């Protein structure tokens, strides 16, 4: 018997690697005799840096950068000086996890710090850079990153301005990318996206992600207007219509700007990490795959890690079990193709307690699953 353990991180609780270890420990405790293959995964959001560091055999570099509201912080990226490959997780410098709820300033929040991480990597010699976007505190259309990389922004009078957050997007009349393109010459940028949303419209950056970053509902139309204006400026410079670009709206529009202005490649985070982890190879001959993340619902079928893994599991006719903290629309998810969904926080009332006990509960339910498998029964955790 071969069991593939491939969880995502459990947000605000355990990393993907810690989740994989906890599940493995539970199976071992159950006494189930099997070959266990641990492949912690990510989808481009929080936790991507550590996995990219692992897959690139890179070292952690720590530098001073601006946080989303302009304070100097210490942030990390990963760099392999032998292969000249680097990995940047935008949440390290521009993440919402860096701000307390009363510190949210969505109209001023900038991705400049993420640009500073990229710039440092290039100065170190990086020629291949993976930028994982997700978990941002920003909806600035990537202006902060572009500014840090040398892009110039001009108003209607042709005077250079220095935009901060999205409040300044409407002031930009044109951009000059000569300096940033010179800096990026010979550098391959890959943006690892955690969602498929476009920049504009009802599924776009303003409407979907604005409220998460602290925008009030009555401010969303103004933000959409600013993003629409910005997309026209980008198109005038690059010739690329980024408004409907798939993945372009991730983390407040970063992929759209990077694609059009920096010649970046946009990839699905789930697919990218599945490929990096050789999941298809590991699935061949597997008896089961166990994955997991903090919450699963029908949105998990659209580009998110559990949905991508489920499609692969079906391809190789391997049963797939999901362990998660919260489950929504369980019956629909089972109908969609998951073999079992285990709610590891069942019976726990407090979110704080659930987060504290994630590793313990992953081990507990993995042990139960292993005991069922030992006697030839599938898991029965239909909660």
Keywords, separated by commas or semicolons:
Glycerate kinase, domain 2, alpha/beta, single chain, 6-stranded mixed sheet, 383 residues, 5-stranded parallel sheet, Rossmann fold
Report what the structure shows:
- The protein is α/β, with parallel strands linked by helices and 383 residues long.
- The protein has two domains: 138 residues, Glycerate kinase, domain 1 (Rossmann fold); 223 residues, Alpha-Beta Complex (Glycerate kinase, domain 2).
- Helix content is 37%, strand content 19%.
- The protein is built from 15 helices and 14 strands.
- The strands form three sheets. Strands 3-4-5-6-10-11 form a six-stranded mixed beta sheet, sandwiched between helices. Strands 2-1-12-13-14 form a five-stranded parallel beta sheet, with helices on both faces. Strands 8-7-9 form a three-stranded antiparallel beta sheet.
- The longest helix is centred in the middle third of the chain and has 19 residues.
- It is elongated and about 75 Å long.
- The two termini are 26 Å apart.
């Amino acid at each position: 018997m071969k069991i593939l353990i491939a969880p995502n991180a459990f947000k605000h609780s355990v990393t993907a690697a810690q989740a994989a270890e906890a599940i493995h420990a539970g199976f071992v405790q159950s006494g189930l005799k099997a070959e266990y293959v641990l492949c912690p995964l990510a989808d481009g959001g929080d936790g991507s840096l550590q996995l990219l560091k692992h897959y690139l055999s890179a070292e952690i570099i720590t530098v001073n950068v601006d946080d989303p509201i302009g304070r100097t912080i210490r942030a990390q990226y990963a760099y392999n000086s032998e292969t000249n490959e680097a990995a940047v997780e935008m949440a390290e410098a521009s993440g919402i996890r860096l701000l307390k709820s009363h510190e949210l300033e969505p109209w001023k929040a900038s991705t400049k710090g993420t640009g500073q991480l990229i710039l440092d990597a290039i100065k170190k010699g990086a020629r291949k850079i993976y930028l994982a976007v997700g978990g941002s505190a920003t909806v600035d259309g990537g202006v902060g990153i572009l500014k840090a990389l040398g892009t110039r922004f001009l108003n209607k009078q042709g005077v250079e301005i220095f935009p901060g957050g999205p409040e300044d997007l409407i002031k930009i009349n044109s951009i000059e990318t000569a300096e940033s393109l010179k800096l990026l010459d010979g550098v391959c940028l890959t943006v690892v996206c955690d969602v498929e949303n476009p920049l504009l419209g009802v599924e776009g950056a303003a409407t979907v992600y604005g409220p998460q970053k602290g925008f009030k509902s009555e401010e969303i139309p103004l933000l959409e207007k600013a993003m629409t204006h910005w997309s026209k400026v980008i198109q005038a410079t690059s010739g690329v219509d980024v408004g409907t670009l798939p993945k372009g709206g991730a983390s407040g529009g970063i992929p759209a700007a990077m694609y059009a202005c920096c010649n970046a490649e946009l990839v699905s985070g789930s697919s990218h990490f599945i490929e990096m982890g050789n999941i298809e190879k590991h699935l061949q001959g597997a008896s089961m795959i166990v994955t997991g993340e903090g919450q699963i619902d029908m949105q998990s079928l659209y580009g998110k890690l559990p949905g991508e893994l489920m499609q692969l599991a079906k391809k190789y006719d391997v049963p797939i079990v999901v362990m998660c903290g919260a489950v929504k629309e369980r019956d629909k998810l089972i109908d969609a193709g998951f073999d079992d969904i285990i709610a590891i926080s069942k019976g726990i009332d407090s979110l704080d307690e659930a987060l504290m006990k994630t590793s313990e509960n992953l081990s507990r339910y993995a042990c139960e699953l292993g005991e069922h498998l030992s006697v030839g029964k599938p898991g029965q955790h239909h909660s």
